[in-house]
Amino acid sequence: MLKETIICIVIVVAIIFGDKTTQNYTTESVNELSSGLTNLRESANQDNFEKEKMSNQAEGVYQEWEKRHEKLAFYIEHDELEKVETELIAIKSNIQTENYEELISGIDKSVFILKHIEDKYAFNIQNVF
Predict the structure, then answer these.
(1) Percentage above 90 pLDDT, the chain
(2) pTM for this one?
(3) Tally of domains in the chain
(4) What contacts 24+ positions apart, CB below 8 Å, involve 52-56?
(5) What is the pLDDT of residues 33-65, one digit of tens each?
(6) Calpha distance 119→69 (Å, rounded)
(7) Domain of 94?
(8) Residues in contact with 20: Cβ distance below 8 Å, sequence separation at least 6, in sequence order
(9) 13 within domain boundaries
(10) CATH of the domain at 101
(11) Confidence label for 109 from pLDDT (cuts 50, 70 and 90)
(12) Does a structural domain hold residue 83?
C-alpha cells in the first residue's frame, strides 16, 4: 500500500512539474512573439511607412516563431500552431504587397490566436473541468 501511494505521489508531482514547465515556455513564447508583433503594428501605424524596416521586423518575428515552433509542437495542437503560422505568412505577404489594412488585421489576429493558445493551455480550474 505504501509503495503504490509513493508511486502515485511521484506521478502527480511529475505531471505538475511538466505542466508548469510547458506553461512557462508557452507564456514566454507568446510574450516574445506578441511583443514583436506589437512593434510591427506600431511601425505600420506610422505616417512614414518603411517597407524594408517592416519586412525585416516581420522576418524577425517569423524566425522567432520557427525557433519556438518545434518545442511548442510537442504539447500544443498542430491546428492551433498552423493558424499562427498562416497569419505570420499573411503578414509578410501583406507587407510585400503594401496592403496595410489587411496587415494590421493580420497582426491583431496573430496576437489574439497567441493569447488564445496561452489561455487554452493554462493550468486553471476552467481547463481542468
Answers:
(1) 63
(2) 0.84
(3) 1
(4) 54/95, 55/92, 55/95, 55/96
(5) 999 999 999 888 876 778 888 889 999 999 999
(6) 17
(7) 23-124
(8) 123
(9) no
(10) 1.20.120
(11) very high
(12) yes
